[in-house]
Amino acid sequence: MSDTLTSTMIKNKLPEHFFNSENIGFCRVPGRVNLIGEHTDYNGFSVLPVTIKKEVHCAFSQRNDNEIHLLNEDPRFQPLSFLNQAEISPSPTGSWDNYIKAGVIALNKKFKVRTFPGFNLFIKSTLPIATGLSSSSALVITASLAYLKILGKELGRDISRLELAELMAEGEHFVGTKGGGMDQTVILNGKEGHACKIDFFPIRTALIPLFEDYVFIVCDSTIRAQKTGTCLHRYNAGPRMCSLACALIEKHLRNEFDNDLNIKRLGDLWSGDLCLTFNEILDFAEQAIPKEYLTLKEIAYLLEISPQEVRKLWLGEIEEPEKGFPLKARIQHVITEHKRVELSRDALLANDAYTFGKLMNESHFSCAENYEISIPELDILTQTARKYGAIGSRLTGAGFGGCTVSLVPREKVDYFMENVEKQYYQKYLGLPSAQGMFIAETSPSASYIN
After folding, report:
1. Cα–Cα dist 440/393, whole Å
2. Which one, of 175, 88, 115, 105, lies nearest residue 144 by Cα?
3. What number of other Cβ atoms are within 10 A of residue 403's Cβ?
4. Which of 112, 202, 286, 441 matches a 20 to 30 Å C-alpha distance to 252?
5. How far apart are the C-alpha atoms of 381 and 424, rounded to whole Å?
6. What letters, b where the CB count within 10 A reaches 16 and e where it falls short, cover 240-278?
7. Is 291 a residue whose pLDDT tops 50?
8. Which fold would CATH assign to domain 229-330?
């Protein structure tokens, strides 16, 4: 059964008390599975995700005041409301209305809104939450599409899909995550039957047909990766440490070549004025970051500033690990992961599934060892997947839980699913059956429903 709903199906679910207007709009927003390219987007490097038929659906209508009322069919999310006004304060971390607020605030700034309309928003979703399938960004995009209509703006006329993606990627920082723009971009620009290669700064997309004889299967580890509390802290540590590593490389290159050199993100080494090769980037990183682990004092010495300034500019509240900060390993992952994305694109174009699978396996190893975002459950799940028919398997999403994605020959799908259910879900986890294992059917990009 499809996870895509029609407007009639959504309308039949609407609480009668919630909408007092016949002028109701509808939209659908897909989740995404990132096939390869983890924690590269905010560094300015490419990614390769797909949109999937696990979706957020919504109904919305304008109110005659400036109140925004939210209702979610999922009872885990309580009805909430807030005032649409010039200054909108965040709710406590983890409150689902923050994702709606993020979209509203970004559009208020973009269109210089002065009279702040209210609206009702009803959410019904088939997209699992906290599984690394972009439920958070899908909710932000849902809010943006609804609010665009409320404002009388047209997607494609008043703002392009790429512009909206970039705007919502920045807007989502309101929630507290410091990610890049992959999720928003693919959700708004993906295509059924295709992977979407995304490059950043500026955002560019290229659609690439998927393999016909292989499918991607998503398996939920059942470990939730909520972007709150400890997980939020660990997630944001990645961008912060990459920025710090970038500063060290910039300092080294200024000393070697040009004191006026500016490098905002690691991707600038590849696509900026320098246009360095992969090997050159790794060589300079080796010179700029002389040890596997650097203490705060050693970093400050290399940058010729105080430890307090290092913390203020880059590290924030991140605690110093006992062995020091593993900046070299983080750089190693980001640079090699970008190369894997480029090679994966080539493998898709050449219909070379085995090379693609090999790159997926290498990616998971790097995510686990160099970026340290895997957990035992994800490692066991990917090992099990490879044992029972997957030619490639890796974690997908921010890590610390969530899902894996595996590349499986079509003729082995039943064998794969039966054995992963038996070995991982039943034997390893002790569950009666598989939880959240499905073929990643691809989906069109986010759209309004007539």
Report:
1. 14
2. 105
3. 28
4. 202
5. 6
6. bbbbbbbbbbbbbbeeeeeeebebebbbbbbbbebebee
7. yes
8. de novo design (two linked rop proteins) (1.20.1440)
Q: pTM for this one? A: 0.94
The CATH number of the domain covering residues in 7-209+442-448? 3.30.230.10
Query: DSSP code of 47?
Result: B
Q: Provide the pLDDT confidence category of residue 192 given band limits of 50, 70 and 90.
A: very high
At 43, is the pLDDT very low, low, confident or very high (cuts 50, 70, 90)? Answer: very high
What is the total residue count of the chain?
A: 450
Q: How far is the C-alpha of 261 from the C-alpha of 278, rounded, in Å?
A: 19
Task: Say how far apart CA 445 and CA 164 lie, in whole Å.
Answer: 13
For residues 309 and 217, what is the distance between their CA atoms, to the nearest angstrom?
Answer: 46
Contact 343, 356 (CB under 8 A): no
Query: Where along the chain do the CATH 3.30.230.10 domains lie?
Result: 7-209+442-448
Q: Which residues are catalytic?
A: 183
Tell me the β-bridge partners of 52. Answer: 31, 442
Q: Report the alpha-carbon distance of residue 240 to residue 178 in Å, rounded.
A: 9
Instruction: Name the amino acid, one letter, at 320.
Output: E
Residue 434 contacts residue 421 (beta carbons within 8 Å): yes
Q: In the structure encoding, which two tokens stand for residue 50, read together?
A: 């797909």
DSSP of 111-159: TT--S---EEEEEEE-SPSSSSS-HHHHHHHHHHHHHHHHTT--BTTTB
